[in-house]
Amino acid sequence: MTVNQILSTKGKEVYSVLSTNTVYEALTVMSEKNIGAILIIEDGILKGVLSERDYARKIVLKAKSSKKALVHEIMETEVFTVKPSDNLDYCMELMSTKRVRHLPVLENDTVIGIISISDVVKAIIEIQKDTIQHLNSYITQ
Predict the structure, then answer these.
(1) Is residue 127 pLDDT above 90, yes or no?
(2) CA-to-CA distance for 34 and 84, rounded, in angstroms?
(3) In the predicted model, what is the mean pLDDT of residues 104-112?
């Protein structure tokens, strides 16, 4: 299974904010959209990712104000991305080795979607269910 197949099931909707938005504004969008991370895109270029983990570690634990801090102060700028043609094994390896939970999907340097560890795990479970069902039908024939 490929990233593109995950996106075709989940959708390609991408939410983003600017690096000059406050962290509070970014969190508000994340809450409204029920997402755990938001992309920072400026002039069509991916600049970073802001996750709930960034907020917890860089604002809450340091007693900063999310209404005063700007996204660029805490966003992750080293962003690992995937292509629509990449397979799930590659995504899992990248997420595990780089310790990230979200991977923006780029096509010709343009963000066309984002996948999360949850999306990848769900897809792998579906593949395993199909394999088990196929093996069960093969055994019982």
Answers:
(1) no
(2) 23
(3) 96
**What ranges make up the beta strands (E) of 15-87?**
16-17, 37-42, 45-51
According to DSSP, residue 107 is labeled E
**d(C-alpha 135, C-alpha 43), whole Å:** 50
Element (H, E) at 28: helix 23-33
Q: What is the C-alpha to C-alpha distance for residues 17 and 29, in angstroms, rounded to an integer?
A: 8
Give 38-63 pLDDT, tens digit per residue: 999 999 999 999 999 999 999 988 88
Q: What is the pTM of this model?
A: 0.87
- Match 């805490």 to its residue by tokens: 74
CB burial of 102-125 (b: ≥16 within 10 Å; e: otherwise) equals bbbbbeeeebbbbbbbebbeebee
